[in-house]
Each structure stands twice: as C-alpha cells, then as structure tokens.
Amino acid sequence: MITYALICDNEHKFDAWFRDAGAYEEQHRRGIVTCPVCASAKVEKALMAPAVSRGKAEKVSLSIGHPLHAQVREAIRALRNKIVSEADYVGERFAEEARKIHFKDVEARGIYGEATREEVAALIEDGVDFMPLPSVPEEHN
Ligand SMILES: [Zn+2]
Fold first, then answer.
1. Among 36, 98, 101, 127, which is least packed by CB within 10 angstroms?
2. CA 125 to centroid of ligand 1, rounded, Å
3. Dihedral (C-alpha) 10, 46, 1, 118: value to the nearest 10 degrees?
4. How far does the centroid of ligand 1 lie from the alpha carbon of residue 40, in Å?
5. Is the pTM of this model over 0.85?
6. Which of 90, 23, 47 is nearest to 32 (CA)?
7. β-strand pairing of 88-91 with 13-18
C-alpha cells in the first residue's frame, strides 16, 4: 500500500491509500478518486514543497507583511487553475512526454504531471524548457 497526499480543485488536502502507484493512476483516470470534503473528482497529487524539503543547505526566498500577498496568492491560484484546466494531465509520464514535446516527436501541447528529482535533473540536462507548476502558498490564518 502507498499513501498519497492529494489536493482537489477546491484546495482541500487529504491523504488517500492505494494498492500501488498504478492503482492510483487507474482510479484517477476513471475519476473515482474524490475529495472527502467536497466530493470533487478533480484531484491531483499535492506537491510537496520541494525547496523546503530538500534539506537545510538550500535556502528559499520568502516574504511577509506586504499588502500584495493576497493578490499574489490569488494570481498564482488563477494561473495554476488555468494551466491545470487547459493542459493534459500525464501523471508520472511527465518526463517522457516533456521530452517528446521538446524534441518535436509529438505536436506541441501543454501538459502537466509529476517527475522525480532524477527525471527533473535529466530534463534540465537535455535543455527541456519546463517549469514547476506554481503551488499556492498556504494561508495560515
Ligand atoms: Zn474538495
């Protein structure tokens, strides 16, 4: 069994258990992975905060107290939602699909999904122009 931290399109975060990664992919594809709070089937794996979890050595840039915070959060949320609603979700095949797009083996299109750190490093090495899907900073109030 594996557990995934998931998030729905209403920003509800929850954990769900699956037999294995394939079981998650299959159930996700069939739209039967739903949010326990709002029952939305628009669910995806929550991104860990990679910059924070990577270890002490790496620093992250942060800010506090600026009146633009709410606006930035809203803009990121809107942009993220736009990408998620318009791009194809390719799950763990992201690196593979991104490479196909980069090397023009397939027609250019927007995709999003997950990749391991090793896959990300390899994509950078190959000069593939991708970016982290922006994650909305948590509101702690
Ligand atoms: Zn929800």
1. 127
2. 37
3. 160
4. 5
5. no
6. 23
7. unpaired
